[in-house]
Amino acid sequence: MTGPMKFGEYLKNRRTELGWTQPDAAAKASIEQSYLSKLETGKSFPSEDVYQRLVEAFSLDTEAMIAALYPAELDRLREIEAVRKHLLEREHNTRSTTRRWLYAGLAALVAGGALVGLAQVDRGGAATHYTYQSYGVVRPGERDDVFDQDPARADEQTISIPDMRGPAYTETVPEGRRMWHLVGANAVLVPARFGWALIPGFALIIGGLGCFFISWRRP
């Protein structure tokens, strides 16, 4: 792929592609050969009228030509209406694309920051859980020591809960009530509820910064 070139070089390359000599090309464009020579060597630039003749004779594609020329060359051709129109359209498209990259970057940063913040809401870690034990369900009308009198009735259960409810507490169940007694406590590792949000959050933040960088580097 060739790099940027001057207008004269572009014109000469096009003439070569068509297989024309300089006199042939000058005749087809209805201009003097000496003037075409000045155009090809960069000593002169075409007027509006001459440019239209060149477009018709050489089948020039203004948009393709603009993409191939140095910016400084385009400034010299800006007075030509067809060139100016394409330049303005390209500048508008560039600004629109830049704005889209900026908006995308801003949205990614906001979303990433929100996810990182969410991950900090519940960071997990070590927590104390309390172990309670119940011998069984005490039915209505029965004494609390019913299981001492009738061990066969026992339906022992043990639970571990994160909140301390005192040395004992009563829980109402459909069959009656359960008496829970504290029998111990132990430390457990509780995972963060929203820990999953940390990685996509940082990924979005990095992506947002990347969008800003792209918008800054766009020509």
What does this structure look like?
It contains nine helices and five strands, in the order H-H-H-H-H-H-H-E-E-H-E-E-E-H. It has 219 residues and is of the alpha+beta class. It has three domains: 7-79, 434 Repressor (Amino-terminal Domain), CATH 1.10.260.40; 90-122 and 194-217; 125-190, no CATH class. Strands 1, 2, 3, 4 and 5 form a five-stranded antiparallel beta sheet that branches. The radius of gyration is 41 Å and the shape is rod-shaped. The mean pLDDT is 91.
Features:
single chain; five-stranded antiparallel sheet; alpha+beta; 219 residues; 434 Repressor (Amino-terminal Domain)
Write a brief structural summary.
This protein has helices at residues 7-18, 22-29, 33-41, 48-58, 62-68, 71-77, 81-121, 146-149, 198-217, and strands at residues 125-134, 137-138, 157-161, 168-173, 176-190. The protein is α+β, with helices and mostly antiparallel strands. The protein has three domains: 7-79, lambda repressor-like DNA-binding domains (434 Repressor (Amino-terminal Domain)), CATH 1.10.260; 90-122 and 194-217; 125-190, no CATH class.
